[in-house]
Design a protein that fits this description.
Blueprint (H helix, E strand, L loop, with lengths): L35 H17 L7 H12 L6 H26 L6 H38 L11 H13 L1
Helix pairs in contact: 1-2, 1-3, 2-4, 3-4, 3-5, 4-5
């Protein structure tokens, strides 16, 4: 399998421009405008693919959906934010295990190393934009809470805990 080079762009929109030999987004999804049930089903499918093989991120079917979720992270419902972050963290964990196996001599091959390198870059790119989107969503949420005097029951998921999880995976 030929692996296209993933060049981390300064802004996500850089991946929407096709450059020969480089990875780019092929299908633009409107994650923010998608029905929650449909997005949840697509994210579940992406999670299954990444869980089976963390290198599946190098396939446009998986990456393009996560790219759409990350670039519209603030407009996603908290459950979809959590699901998106969970897929990326799961993939980072898997690809880092694959890298350890390569360097530990458990697997071999230059193609495997190149594939892992490109997958790591993709997960780092996604994690970076999740962190930014999460921080922006948290700021918006705090502003709404200050403006609103009503107290609603919060879900068990918090951005702070997820942010720590993402950062721990990147530094592992």
């Amino acid at each position: 399998m030929t692996v296209r080079v993933f060049k981390i762009p300064v802004k996500p929109e850089g991946l929407l421009v096709e450059v020969e030999g480089r990875f780019s987004v092929e299908t633009e999804h409107d994650a923010g405008g998608m029905a929650r049930a449909q997005l949840q089903a697509l994210l579940s499918e992406a999670r299954d693919r990444v869980e089976d093989d963390a290198l599946a991120i190098c396939e446009n079917e998986v990456f393009d959906l996560l790219f759409a979720c990350v670039t519209s992270f603030r407009s996603l419902a908290p459950a979809q934010q959590q699901q998106t972050s969970g897929v990326v963290v799961l993939g980072m964990t898997g690809v880092l295990s694959a890298v350890r196996a390569l360097f530990g001599g458990q697997t071999s091959g230059r193609d495997s190393l190149v594939h892992c390198r490109e997958a790591v870059k993709m997960y780092v790119f996604l994690a970076r934009w999740i962190l930014q989107g999460g921080e922006e969503a948290e700021k918006q949420s705090k502003k709404r809470k200050v403006a609103s005097s009503s107290k609603k029951k919060q879900s068990g998921w918090t951005w702070e805990a997820e942010q720590e999880n993402v950062l721990l995976q990147v530094s592992a």
